[in-house]
Amino acid sequence: MEKLLKRLGFRSEMDEIRSMALHDALTSLPNRVLLEERINFAIAQASRLGSKVAMMFIDLDNFKQINDIQGHKVGDQLLVAVSNTLRSQLRPYDTLARWGGDEFVVLLPDMRNTQDARAVAEKLMQALQRDLLPEQNLHTTLSIGIAVYPDDADSTESLLMQADKALFHSKAEGRNNIQIFSEMQQYGRGFVDTKLTAYFSAALKNHLLHVHFQPIVDAQTHKTVCIEALARWYDAEHGWISPGIFIPLAENLGLIEEVGNQILLEAMSYYCVCPWKDEVRMAVNISNRQLFSESFVPSLVQLVDSHGVEPDRIKIEITESTALDAERAKRTLKQLADLGFNISVDDFGTGFSSLSRLHEMPVDELKIDQSFVRRSRTTEGQLMLKTIVNMGRVMNLKLVAEGVEDKETADLLCDMGVHYLQGYYFCPPKPDEDIRDYIAQNNGDSASQSVKLKSTA
User: Fold this and answer.
1) Distance CA 413, CA 329 (A)
2) pLDDT tens across 70-104, in order?
3) Which stretch of DSSP H or E encloses residue 238?
4) Mean pLDDT throughout 16-34?
5) pLDDT confidence band for 454 (50 / 70 / 90)
6) Which of 131-140, 276-285, 376-385, 447-456 has the lowest mean pLDDT?
7) What global pTM score does this model have?
């Protein structure tokens, strides 16, 4: 496979594609994938040298209101201004990454103690006290949560989790403040652990996790061909809580399978009574822990069978890293493919070093990572997209582009040969009744015979 790609001229572009996939399109900061690589390296180095590594989660206070009032363009300008300001306050070997939305992460290797990390956090907060966009008279404050290796955590995953818990506490304390995980003894260290766990466990127990659906449309006709089921959590006190927070929390607590089962059940209960299910498939995201559970395949088969849904109407979405998890993934994916399920690889573009293994997997579809889609208006970005499209052709796979936010991007991707599109330009994630109305309007008469749908969740 790799020899074939080299002959076709793709090999020389892979490193550039990977670089693009490791950085945020708006701010050019490292993204989660690159951040985790650097955390792993920093922890390994700290373990050898006996030093410390500080992890800082940063949230912009009241960013949503700024976005809603001033518009997304101003919101993007603010994010860029904040990232530039924060980066200017850090050492050359520190890492500032964009975690998503209005959240940033700072990695501070080679720290002496917790108070050094606090001093950096205070420096960052002070730097944002000026107007970042003078013409808009805009400034923002920060909520910061800090955790330190090895004081608070012994791995990359646990360090991220403890810093996130500290951020949660910072926002719960009224925002515009700094919380350090190890210093929460004044509240009892269990405060954040217990509060986060209790909130999430209660939400799970009371079925407060719900499904929203986002359409995937045909690139040429713009008719809905699939709906992706997405987990959502609304808390009465804290509002909408990002999946970027509660999904890792579920995994850390060993509850991800229960979360997955609830989302699958609610999504299937909705889908099985849809009058248009013969023309619109449903995609569900499956974590690696779910996929590799011995009970996953038989449970999924029983679920679709009990709801009268044929396996070929369901698309299983897995991340590229999960798909490349050696023989275990290959065996499970083959079972699913043999049963008739469709397999889609999400966030495609960050695993090119193992592209030959991906070619061996029983995969039907690739979802192009939105970091490439965001660069579609640049010459470099268009070259990368064309390369990925050609790779998809070589592997005889359908292509989905996610993160499509305007007509120009949609038209460009369609002209390139991308088969399906997904993004806010067409429709944001919506609850079941709203998505039903969208499909009825978007797909015409065959979808207009909607019925009142029930949820068993």
Assistant:
1) 30
2) 888 888 899 999 999 999 999 999 999 998 888 99
3) none
4) 84
5) very low
6) 447-456
7) 0.65
Which range (256-260, 374-378, 438-442) has the least confidence? Answer: 374-378
Show the 3-state SS of the chain: CHHHHHHCCCHHHHHHHHHHHCECCCCCCECHHHHHHHHHHHHHHHHHHCCEEEEEEEEECCHHHHHHHHCHHHHHHHHHHHHHHHHHCCCCCCEEEEEECCEEEEEEEEECCHHHHHHHHHHHHHHCCCCCEHHHCECCCEEEEEEEECCCCCCHHHHHHHHHHHHHHHHHCCCCCEEEHHHHHHCCCHHHHHHHHHHHHHHHHCCCEEEEEEEEEECCCCCEEEEEEEEEEEECCCEEECHHHHHHHHHHCCCHHHHHHHHHHHHHHHHCCCCCCCCCEEEEECCHHHHCCCCHHHHHHHHHHHCCCCHHHEEEEEEHHHHCCHHHHHHHHHHHHHHCCEEEEEEECCCHHHHHHHHHCCCCEEEECHHHHCCCCCHHHHHHHHHHHHHHHHCCCEEEEECCCCHHHHHHHHHHCCCEEECCCCCCCECHHHHHHHHHHHHCHHHCCCCCCCCCC
Among 336, 35, 315, which Cα is nearest to 157's? 35
Other CB atoms closer than 10 Å to residue 44's CB: what's the count?
12
Place of tokens 């040298």: 49
Place of tokens 């909520």: 143
- Among 390, 387, 364, which residue's Cα sits nearest to residue 376? 387
Q: Please check whether residue 125 is in contact with residue 142, taking contact to mean a CB–CB distance below 8 angstroms.
A: yes
Rounded to a whole number, what is the distance in angstroms from the first to the last CA of the chain?
45
Q: How far is the C-alpha of 178 from the C-alpha of 162, rounded, in Å?
A: 14
Residue 84: per-residue pLDDT: 94
Res 3 pLDDT > 80: no
Strands 342-348 and 365-368 come out as parallel
Q: What's the CA gap between 20 and 287, in Å, rounded?
A: 24
Q: Quick check: 456 pLDDT over 50?
A: no
**Closest Cα partner for 200 from 212, 210, 211, 208?**
208
| 9/312 Cα distance (integer angstroms) | 35
For each of the domains in the chain, give its residue range(s) and CATH number, in order of start: 31-198 (3.30.70.270), 208-447 (3.20.20.450)
Check the CA dihedral 168-171-174-177 and report its sign.
positive
User: Tens digits of per-residue pLDDT, 325-354?
Assistant: 656 678 888 999 999 999 998 877 655 545
